Amino acid sequence: MDHEFRVTRTKLGRYYISIPVPLDVKHPIQQQQPNAVGGGDNQAPTVAPHAAAAIDPGVRTPFTVYSPDEARIYELGANDFGRIRRLCHHLDDLVSRTTDRDVRKKRRRRMRRAAARMRRRIRDLVDDLHRRAAKWLCETFETIIYPHYETSNMVVGKSKRRGLHSKTVRAMLTWSHFRFKQHLLHKIREYPSGCRVVLVDESYTSKTCGGCGRINHGLGKSKLFWCEQCGFRTDRDWNGARNIWLKFLTEWCNGSSRGNDDDDKEQQQQQQQ
């Protein structure tokens, strides 16, 4: 073996071997065959490479993708929310039972190990979605518009002050959108001539009407966006993804997106180091 490697063992008794390998640089995007994301009803159809896509990270649907070339919406991981939520409920129930005073020490230890396995299961499912989504995006689009989406800043404080219910916060943290962004920035290194990521500000993209531009301050948790001024109706996440694209175009025309490109290059250089 040409490089040093490392073997690690987790608390659950799982062994991992870490071996550095050369970066597998893909051919230009025109020669790639996009793969589907998800399974069953959650599959993203195979499409020819397109110029750009805007992504709206969310809770009900982890990644809502708007393709302006097709004027089409892709919902990645839409059917995974229920499965992850059920596992989280089982985990909460198991953790609550470990605090019961009537539970003996050996049984409590087994329950804690079972809870750790369930957390690992949830993490594996989320990571699997991240990997398949990033691969599909890189092979399908040349430019990926992704918001900064700082989840850690959104969930700080009590529910009344932050404006988010604890269940929403739980889902946002479970989907690990920041970790997906880091994985996506790492993945595009395999497509140096065919894909790039541009980070943009997503503020007010969900509340702004895609028809007339009016801001709906009373949107709240509603899944349906409805504008009282022009009567525009659409799915909340669909509206957000499309508005992220429109906001990117506006900033690009004004020249402010060039700074975002520089930020992307800095992040990619840090990852290469």
TrEMBL record:
Keyword set includes DNA-binding: yes
Similarity section: In the C-terminal section; belongs to the transposase 35 family.
InterPro entries from the UniProt entry: Cas12f1-like_TNB, Recombinase/Transposase-rel, Transposase
Protein name: Transposase
Domain of life: Eukaryota
Domain spans labelled Probable transposase IS891/IS1136/IS1341: 43-139
Keyword vocabulary terms for this entry: DNA recombination, DNA-binding, Transposition
Location of the Cas12f1-like TNB domain: 177-244
Record-level GO BP terms: DNA recombination; transposition
GO molecular function: DNA binding
Keyword S-adenosyl-L-methionine: no
